[in-house]
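Re: the pair you flagged

First of the two:
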Amino acid sequence: MNTRANRTVLGIGALALAASSGCASLDQLRQEQMANRNLEAQRLELENELRDARTKIELQQKDLSAKERELDALHQTLANLEKQLNGTDEARRAALDALSKMAERGLGEGPTVISQPLPRDLHEAVKKFAAMYPDAVEYDAQRGAVRWKSDLLFALGSAVVRDEAKASLGGFADIVQSQAAAEFEALVVGHTDNKPIKRSQTRVEHKTNWHLSSHRAISVMEVLRGYGVGEPRMGVMGYGEFRPIADNSGGPQNQAKNRRVEIFLVPSNRGATAAGPDAPATDATRATAKAE
């Protein structure tokens, strides 16, 4: 009896031990599964952070590329401005050299500015020329002058002749070199409106309206010289704001009229005369007047 009881007790103990061992394994399995889930969540979180970091880097690279393009554009603009500035300096130096040569040749007195009509052949040539460029030039037949709008010749505050304006100046150069104008010279006169120069960048090149009007006249003379007009047959003047043809207080439209460059065809120092389109040359037609 005792032996049977002992066996029974041992059997129960074995069952209890097996049950206890099974519970421990289940708990361990659950812990491992929980740890795996945590690791998986961490992996997904890290992947999301990595994806966000890559996206941020791509955006930064695009922004950097855009800024590099902007910097390249600024460098190109600066190079163009430097080129334009160098061209202006070269033109001014060449014009001053031309004026010095003219003085050395005894041409210091300069041509006479007249307010008389031109001889018939020259009048017809200039009239035809003006009709070819109605939007750019105006022919003042009573004064023997061709007037260009400065807004078409030059950019704001600049004394560099626009490329698109050079064609009309080339056409006028052909007239100056024609037989009809053989006894005449070209006097280039610059004018401005009454607005003072305020932009610091402009003031570096043109301190006042006097400077700007003179520099523009010199630039136009340089273009004419480039088209073959001889230096001894040209002169330049600058009146700044002091010879308006419209009331500056009338607003931007009147001010635009005053910003202009005029070229007078005047008798040369060799004693040429100027007559009207239908009148013969006489001493009376040699009367001179101040350019207005």
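Second of the two:
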Amino acid sequence: MKGNNPVRARYYHDKSGRFVDEFTVCYPGVRLTPFITTYPNATLSIHPQAPDGVFQHGFQQGSPIDGFGRRATDYKHLGVRVSWHELPTDVQKALMEEAMA
């Protein structure tokens, strides 16, 4: 996979140091029915594949947890929006392996 964002998603980094899952990934919505769309997301630690690492998934119906990131206030609770290239190598690796599965 080539490009600036090989895993089609938006990424956030909570640099506060208060949480183990400091990276949040917001995936595009998935239409379940003509009236219901669900928005998958994931949270990861800096070393998600380590024995004590975190890589957990969730979803929200109706709207993404970052409000599409139109305004900084839409995703302030997630941290700072970052690009694929700003993610740690271990986070990129975990996301790529999941995408290829």
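The CA atoms of residues 66 and 76 lie 8 Å apart.

-B.
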